[in-house]
Specification:
CATH superfamily of the largest domain: Periplasmic binding protein-like II
Distance between the termini: 75 Å
Strand content: 5-15%
CATH topology of the largest domain: D-Maltodextrin-Binding Protein, domain 2
Number of strands: 13
CATH architecture of the largest domain: 3-Layer(aba) Sandwich
Helix content: 40-55%
Radius of gyration: 25 Å
Shape: globular
Number of helices: 16
Structural class: alpha/beta
Length: about 450
Amino acid sequence: MKTKKRGQMRNVLTRGWLVGILLILLVTSACQGLPVEFELPWQKTSVPVKKTATAVESDTTNTPGSDELELTPTAIGDPDTLIIWLPPELNPNDESLAGHLLQEKLDNFAQQNNISITVRIKSRTGTGSLIDALTAASLAAPPTLPDLIVLSATDLHLAIDRELIFPHPRLEEMMSDTDWYPFGRELSRDNGQITAIPLLSNPLSLVYNQASLLKPSDNWMDIQDNYGYFGFAADDSQAKFLLLLYLTAGGEVLDAQGRAILEEDALVDALTVLKEGQRTLHISNLSIGFQTEDQAWNAFLNRSVDTAVVPVGSVLNHQGETVDQPKAALTSPEITLATGMAWALANPSSKRQELALDLLEELSNTDFMASWSEALGRLPARPSALQGWTETELKPALEQMAQAARLYPPEEVLNRLGPALRNAALLILRDAADPVETAKITIESIK
């Protein structure tokens, strides 16, 4: 009888163990089908042949909307391994100069510290994105959390709100010197606390043909006085250029309670700039059909417009591709809007954080950041890094833009104000509406 009871007890425990494993799988799958990587008890952890190898894995096989669960073996709690999550544009294995520079830096660090480094590439948006995968891993599979992660400004805010990243005294020390642009300091700080180390930025710029005898104005509000045809993405769902005009005119996007707002005087001034550009036939009619800055950039390249509002990255990554395209030059505005990316600590283990911070200090080194950011075609967060670029013709304008760059408002603000501002721009350019009446209608639409 006792033997039979012991057998029954073992069966109950076995069933309970299996149910527990199934619950883990169900919880993970419920997180919007995200590709979370974790090790099951019956899987063997992959051990690199050499501890100095840097492995790169990609989640590109997980297409948006896929419910497939990726079960990638990973080292759990191994202090001799670092895990890094990166967006696709920072992939060290993409055979570009930027990829080679990062791969070399990671391999050198791994060799010097006798560790292995695993880099996982995750999309910036959609199923399996960096922020969604980080959220899911923190809930269902903590052992797979990255030690270092690169997040956009928007995702960084979400990670802070969800308590997915961790402050550290050494982050404070790294940000204590003066060698950071204002956008970098803005990106690194949340409620007075340093939560990340700024990396790169991609500000909006006004591009023109270097061969032109007439240099456009550095003031966004004076575009109607520039030569030739001007192009911008008037049908952009976030209305980034009109938002930039509005901020240049002194407008605020948040009230004292943190709610999205538009101020009438500044909005009238911004819409008047568009109205004057239309009246003088300076703004190209093509602008009405442009939904992205890429379309405006292509119009500049094929000489359909003479000046255009585009991200700096478009210019830096396409210089001199063909002999017949115009050679790009940039103005030096006193204010511009920019995206931002930053490094953050995403693993709560203090030992792993210390090792990750050692690597982060090397990745933030001026010489490395100079060569890596120039190869990527993005502005570095450090002035000394931009000074180290080999580029000479565009550097003065880029230095001014880096100083003038402000991060875009939070995504919830852009999503609230963007469609209203887009409609306002189209009313002015397509329907020849009055700026004052359009401003009133626009402000009323967001209440």
